[in-house]
From TrEMBL:
NCBIfam families named among the record's database cross-references: PRK02948.1 (NF002806)
Cofactor(s) needed: pyridoxal 5'-phosphate
Enzyme class: transferase
Coiled coil: none
InterPro entries: Aminotrans_V_dom, Aminotrans_V_PyrdxlP_BS, Cysteine_dSase, PyrdxlP-dep_Trfase, PyrdxlP-dep_Trfase_major, PyrdxlP-dep_Trfase_small
Record-listed E.C. numbers: 2.8.1.7
Protein's recorded name: cysteine desulfurase
Superkingdom to which the source organism belongs: Bacteria
Similarity comment: family membership: Belongs to the class-V pyridoxal-phosphate-dependent aminotransferase family. NifS/IscS subfamily.
PROSITE patterns: AA_TRANSFER_CLASS_5
Keywords from the named record: 2Fe-2S, Iron, Iron-sulfur, Metal-binding, Pyridoxal phosphate, Transferase
Amino acid sequence: MNPVYLDYAATTPVDERVLQAMKPYFCERFGNASSLYSWGREARKAVAEAREKVAALLQASPSEVYFTSGGSESDNWAIKGAAFALRRAGRGKHIITSCVEHHAVLNACRWLEQEGFEVTYLPVDKNGRVLPEQVFDALRDDTVLVSIMTANNEVGTIEPIAEIGRRMQEQQIFFHTDAVQAAGHIPIAVDELHVDALSLSGHKLYGPKGVGALYLRRGSSLDSLVHGGPQEREMRAGTENTAGIVGLGQAAELAKQEMSDEWERLSDLRDMLIAAVRELGDSWINGDEKYRLPGHVSFGLRGISQDTLLIRLDMAGFAVSAGSACSAGALEPSHVLLAMGQTKEQASSAIRVTLGRFTSVEEVQRFIRKLSLLVGAIRGR
Ligand SMILES: *Cc1c(COP(=O)(O)O)cnc(C)c1O
């Protein structure tokens, strides 16, 4: 039996159509986008077209999209770049984020603390939602930046970004959102979310790894992290990763076209899986029932540790994860589940199953059957 990949939140395969779009840019159209002659023009045009496609996915303007090396760089750039630019402008040194952010955000904030910034890490409710009121209450006169993720990678909870953003815009506070798990999967319009900056990553939406983008609202100021040549409108130096950028553009275009059908299909599969987990008994679903990514299921089973179940599922050919890809291998309980108020024991039982474009009904049914057999065997029933 073929192995079944159910870890789309960790990474997605490159869509064949994305690969085809990228291919010419390795050997034939290999030019440097800064060169004057035809090879350069060709690369420049390809980058410009990709920028339009990414902008279209976010309902932004192409001039507000900057290409980066991925989600981690986009997060670091938005947070460090805004923090330094705004402190220099005399606006202050206080940053607000949440306890459930990806480590690309949390560790960028931790580093900024060493640089003299003060960071408030907001708690979440038991479903992993940040309460807008708590963001508003945490605001200080010297708050320069707020960063809250659009959707959580471990539990799939969608955060109230528009509600927070509206207030941040009124108060003119720079608002960043890590939309790496959301972009290409749920509709995103930067004006409706009222964000100043938004991060996304190629490999979470069927594009290649090592390429991402940062949306930055026109008129916002951000210090550069990568200094050098004048690429990306003098904001991010380095010869453009043309093939990767073309891949990201193609992936964004496909995601936009297929999003609503895919949303429906995956939500149905997800709900089927959630129902099956509930049926196992002594189980719980992590994350919000209503505000939840399509295709995202995180659950716990009383008395069964994630290691035990993951190993047995792996042996049976099913690739799922223990919360997040980044903490896999580390024995630390998930910072997200602890922030949601779970005990270490509950958190150490978390299994994340994430479905995507190439997941079939049959695969989900096979997974459900195997899970139920394994859980029965472990519990000795
Ligand atoms: C994967 C992920 C990142 C990091 O993106 P990379 O492209 O892998 O650097 C950041 N934030 C979230 C929410 C993610 O899921």
